[in-house]
């Protein structure tokens, strides 16, 4: 976690969870680290991790089995992809479009760069 970053710590933890699901480190129906364990690893209050887990739970990426812990939902990866895609469209693409405009990189030049990176 980057405590100097403007993004809230709970959101950084939620993003970490999304990454773990998207990369397959946390698989469908697999138990994920406990709130206390993750809080200890990251060095934050367990309530902060719980807030991130609540977000992931509300979005259907993970679910809580009372007394057993949190698990990745069967369709957690698809839902994580949907969230990450929306974040990319809302945040990264506008920044990229702005940079392309500043650098006077045309659509054709961008496609050429994507097809043949330097």
Task: Outline the fold blueprint.
Layout: H1 9-22, H2 35-42, H3 46-58, E1 62-65, E2 69-72, H4 76-102, H5 107-115
Structural description of this entry:
The chain is mainly α and 118 residues long. The chain has a single domain (1-118), classed as Orthogonal Bundle (Arc Repressor Mutant, subunit A). The chain is 60% helix and 7% strand. It contains 5 helices and 2 strands. The chain has helices at 9-22, 35-42, 46-58, 76-102, 107-115, and strands spanning 62-65, 69-72. Strands 1-2 form a two-stranded antiparallel sheet. A hairpin with a 3-residue loop joins strand 1 and strand 2. The longest helix is centred in the last third of the chain and has 27 residues, at 76-102. The chain starts with 8 loop residues before the first helix and ends with a helix.
């Amino acid at each position: 976690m980057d405590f100097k970053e403007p993004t809230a710590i709970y959101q950084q933890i939620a993003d970490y969870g999304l990454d773990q699901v998207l990369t397959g480190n946390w698989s469908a129906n697999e138990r994920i680290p406990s709130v206390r364990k993750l809080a200890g690893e990251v060095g934050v209050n367990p309530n902060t991790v719980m807030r991130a887990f609540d977000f992931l739970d509300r979005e259907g990426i993970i679910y809580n089995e009372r007394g057993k812990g949190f698990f990745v939902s069967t369709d957690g990866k698809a839902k994580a992809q949907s969230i990450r895609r929306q974040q990319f469209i809302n945040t990264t693409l506008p920044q990229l479009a702005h940079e392309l405009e500043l650098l006077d990189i045309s659509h054709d030049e961008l496609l050429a760069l994507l097809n043949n990176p330097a």
